[in-house]
């Protein structure tokens, strides 16, 4: 039994785009150790994306490879959560320049990892045995990502007045984007139907518990969610994804089929 | 917090055990705010290439070290005591590697 290709792409695109975003810290981390930690996180995510793309490419056939899926698809083809593509800074136009805010990076990694520890755990029982194996490997990685981001969330929230304010602003800005987790897309519904995917909606209580406990410990307030439910996994993205892809895909598109 | 905030994170010494059964070896140091933070950073910096299965971190301030000036009285007296090396015994074959 194989998972629907679009479901694999949804999982892969989440990992690739967040991995690409976190890689932006490479060489710019607040301290050397954190620079390496974020690069490690990024490489874990890109590794997950590769495994998923390889699986999807095999199912897709017609000359598809992990590279064609990562580098030769455009914005509407990407199935990642909008949360993963946002810049590391307060909301602004995609063409505006600003300083990266480490609190945004940490809060996003925390919100995403809190979901993925639950998702990968359940996907270990997927009827797609290839996907189940990827889940088992990814679970270990994302457990560390959660530990790392949760630890920093506590330090920022329960730290200085400035770090608290930045962490609170980050959670205020990002939490509403998590509403996308709980609105099933056609690819998720199809994957649940054939036993290869999981119904993410059933994870909401566990996710809330992880998030609420950490926020409380970090002395941060959970804001009300509401308003617009993002649609990244349907292929309708924020203006930011195009800029991420432009940077990430430019080399492969300038030198197609280049190899090391 | 009653204690004043430190401008600089304290220094930690990092020890990594490369395999079960081997001892932890000193591999470097880093700045971190507390032991949990130090462990995570040591994991990210010193075990990326499968160097370890266990990490210890120790506040550098907790280590008492001999001084370079101690060398004459600490170490030099051992230099002419070759009989302390067990090199004057024939090791029976049955003992194997020592």
TrEMBL record, chain B:
Gene3D superfamilies listed in its UniProt record: Phenylacetic acid degradation B
Top-level taxon of the source organism: Bacteria
Pfam families: PaaB
InterPro entries for the chain: PaaB, PaaB_sf
Family annotation (NCBIfam families): PA_CoA_Oxy2 (TIGR02157)
Protein name: 1,2-phenylacetyl-CoA epoxidase subunit B
Organism from which the protein derives: Limnohabitans parvus II-B4
